[in-house]
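Can't paste images in this forum, so I'm doing it all in text. The chain is below; anyone willing to post the predicted C-alpha cells underneath?
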Amino acid sequence: MQTMSDFIQNNKTTIQVFILIISIGSGLLVYLTWYVSPDEITERVKVIANTENGCIVETMDNFAINIGSCDAQSGETIVATYDAKIKERALLMNPTG
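Text version of the structure:
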C-alpha cells in the first residue's frame, strides 16, 4: 500500500502541472472580473437625443453614450451616471479615434 508521501513523489510533475493550471485559471478569472465590472462616473452631460432606446448624451470629453431612459430634451444639460469603461472599450475598438 502506498503512503501519501510515496504518492506525492511519484506524481510530482502531475501535481505541479495541476497547480499551474489552477493558478492560470484563477488569474484569468480575476482579470475578467475586473475588466467587466463597472466603473461608474457621475458627471454633467449634454443630451444629444432622446430616442426610444434611451438618452444619448455627450460627456465632457466628447464621447456619445447611451444612459438609458430619461425625461430630458435634446440640448439640455443633465447630471448622469454611466460606466467609464465604455470609453476604454470604444477606444480599443477604434484606436484611430
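DSSP finds three helices and four strands in the chain. The chain has two domains: 4-36, 40-93.
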